[in-house]
């Protein structure tokens, strides 16, 4: 990416814009062969990648269940020590999430740093939304519910949790 450099928000193989999403080994070659591109530059292809990840996870789920050492009652021992620094890097349907927490001597959280896929995908999300709105919304005309659904598809491809995570309960003003 450093060789390519920043060239504003453009969609091109020569652009430094990138996005993150899940990817699995078993079916992904078929996806790439079908879409005839590696990497895939189609935002909606991330849904296919998520299905590949789910299949892979389901196939691997039985392995630890069949291992007798996982039935040992001492498999999980809860530590009473206060951890000062903790990092978790889980995979989720929206991509890799990085959580970094720091605590004080009493175990209270002092600092939290979250790096989520939405931040990594921000430029690509912007470009997809811009492309869809420019193609579908005409100046001086009202956007229909169907058009707004297509705009929503543009950003949900990057983060299926995006819409649900930003809902808020109605607030009554006095």
Q: Would you write up a description of this structure?
A:
With 174 residues, the chain is of the alpha+beta class. The protein has 3 domains: 20-71, no CATH class; 78-119, no CATH class; 121-168, no CATH class. 37% of the residues lie in helices and 12% in strands. The protein has 6 helices and 5 strands; from the N terminus they run H-H-E-E-E-E-E-H-H-H-H. It has helices spanning 28-35, 45-66, 117-120, 122-136, 145-156, 162-165; strands spanning 85-88, 91-92, 95-96, 98-103, 109-115. The strands form 2 sheets. A 3-stranded antiparallel beta sheet has the order 1-4-5. Strands 2-3 form a two-stranded antiparallel ribbon. Strand 4 (98-103) and strand 5 form a beta hairpin. Helix 4 runs antiparallel to helix 5. It is extended. The model has no long low-confidence stretch (mean pLDDT 77).
Features:
single chain; about 170 residues; alpha+beta; three-stranded antiparallel sheet; two-stranded antiparallel ribbon; 6 helices; 5 strands; extended
Give a quick rundown of the structure.
By secondary structure, the chain is of the alpha+beta class. The chain has 3 domains: 52 residues, no CATH class; 42 residues, no CATH class; 48 residues, no CATH class. It is 37% helix and 12% strand.
State which percent range the strand residues make up. 5-15%
Main beta sheet:
3 strands, antiparallel
SSE order, one letter for each helix or strand = HHEEEEEHHHH
Derived structural class: alpha+beta
Query: What is the spatial order of strands in the main beta sheet?
Result: 1-4-5
Cα(first) to Cα(last) distance is 52 Å
């Amino acid at each position: 990416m450093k060789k390519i450099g920043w060239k504003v928000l453009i969609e091109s193989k020569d652009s430094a814009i990138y996005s993150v999403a899940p990817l699995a080994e078993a079916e992904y070659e078929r996806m790439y062969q079908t879409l005839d591109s590696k990497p895939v530059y189609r935002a909606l292809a991330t849904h296919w990648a998520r299905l590949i990840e789910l299949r892979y996870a389901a196939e691997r789920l039985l392995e630890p269940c069949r291992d007798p050492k996982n039935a040992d009652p001492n498999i999980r021992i809860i530590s009473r020590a206060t951890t000062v620094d903790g990092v978790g890097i889980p995979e989720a349907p929206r991509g890799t999430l990085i959580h970094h927490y720091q605590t004080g001597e009493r175990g209270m959280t002092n600092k939290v740093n979250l790096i989520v896929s939405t931040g990594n995908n921000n430029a690509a999300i912007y470009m997809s939304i811009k492309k869809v709105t420019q193609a579908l919304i005409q100046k001086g005309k009202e956007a229909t519910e169907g058009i707004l659904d297509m705009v929503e598809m543009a950003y949900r491809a990057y983060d299926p949790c995006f819409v649900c995570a930003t809902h808020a309960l109605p607030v009554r003003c006095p």
